[in-house]
Design brief:
five-stranded mixed β-barrel, 588 residues, 13 strands, alpha+beta, 16 helices
Amino acid sequence: MAAPNKGRRPAGASGRPGRTLTLFLIALVALTGGMFASGHTTPRLGIDLAGGTSITLQAKNTPGKPNAINKTNMDTAVSIIERRVNGLGVSEAEVQTQGDKNIIVNVPKGTNEKQAIKQVGQTAQLYFRPVLTVQPGSPTPPQPSTTGSPSPSAKPSGKPSAGAPSSSPQPSDSATSQGRAVTDALKADATPTPGASAPGESAPPADPSASPAPAPDPATAALQKKFEELDCSKKSARTSVNQTAAPKDTIVACGLDTEGKTYDKYVLGPAELEGTDVAKSKGVLDPQRNMWIVTLDFTGGGTKKFQSITSKISQQQPPMNQFAIVLDGDVVSAPSVSGTLGASAEISGSFNQQSAQDLANVLSYGALPLSFETQSVTTVTAALGTEQLEAGLIAGAIGLGLVIIYLVAYYRGLSLIALLSLLASGVMTYTIMSLLGPGIGFALNLPAVCGAIVAIGITADSFIVYFERIRDEIREGRTLRPAVERAWPRARRTVLVSDFVSFLAAAVLFVVTVGKVQGFAFTLGLTTVLDVVVVFFFTKPVMTLLARTKFFSGGSPWSGLDPKRLGAKPPLRRARRTGSPTDQPKEA
């Protein structure tokens, strides 16, 4: 007869529960220590709990596009604005339409509210336009002039290229010189000739016998008048000067000079490139010049266009060898070009780190399909959310209390294991939520609190499944230690299937919903994963260790595992062999 295998453990037995429990506790202590070390000891709250800023944007009609305000463009604008705000590190920001023309943006308190307010309504229409002429930004009062004084040469608003001449603009003597500069620029732009005199330069003496020059056409005259009257020192003039201009129009615009103190005014030709030709943008520090710039990488089509325009304007005289980078009608940079450029460009000017990164963030997510006007910026208080949070916490406390009463009344000693497991799950959930705030921008809102409350029942259900499996094994006549190990494989399978279904539901809900509902789905998914971790690495090892104690293994009435109370069957015994026929008494 084969000797019994004394080293074999019961099916499903865990080898070293003490080591598993120690590793879990070390991880729990590390998470808690990391939370205190980071200084973020509380979860970041959403706008409904902490308050914040609510921005109302109203769409405006686009010139030449009477039907631009439609559902498709509004939905596109919502998507772009949401990506812009989240690009600033603001999570839980709410962006949604209200009616046919309004978009509501809610930004939680304690985030980059100022940058968000600045960027949400920015159209970010980016164009690259050739510079035709540039003058100081102040208007020149009309005055008669019979002698033609030379107009000043132009200065680029951006960083001049190496070898490109530039000079500071001087005030013109009269409005006539400005008007002549506009007319000459338009003529020169129509038929550019390398080496030709720049607009505003002194022209050769006119032949007295020559016939007078024909009067400019009405469009040129209107542009000339607009250029003369433009006062770039006034914000209202800068913001309204190009509101009705199309990409292919010749326009006048304003832009800061290289020192970033005063404004120049420009005449700019039709757009040669648009923002859609930019593949990506980034705000970086140029170590050689010790200044912040915005780098632009063009698409394949944009690279060809950029090479073509820079090759063309590099042959012109200043200021027509400049191209202006125009963002929402303002000239942010106007560098001069001395040769054909390739697949990238840069925007330089009076940037600091924040403004460079803000501009790059706006350009990275594209232009809004509509123009928006900020209707209101209001501060949202957390009074209502606080009341709802208190009501939710009270409901959660009542629910947790009922669960504890049920566990103690029905499972008695086993309820201690369940309560310790719930405590471990709660500490892990709180710690991870606190760390996810600065980590990924997670913000706790009311639906997320509801998800955490629902998770109490999910976690308690896993313990109940395991306890009932152990009781079933005891009812079959097994002692506690084998019952704990034999019950684990079946309970483990049930717990995994149940949690997988809950996690799948949370994942689907997170993907197909937006806004606050995603907070509920995220919290539900997180607590479901933590339930698996706690059951496998805490509840099971603790149960294995306590099964070795006399209180539980002896079947105390207060342990919750009393065989008599459970109606256990007597231990299974083998039937004794009957005697041989010869041993049976013979009949008389």
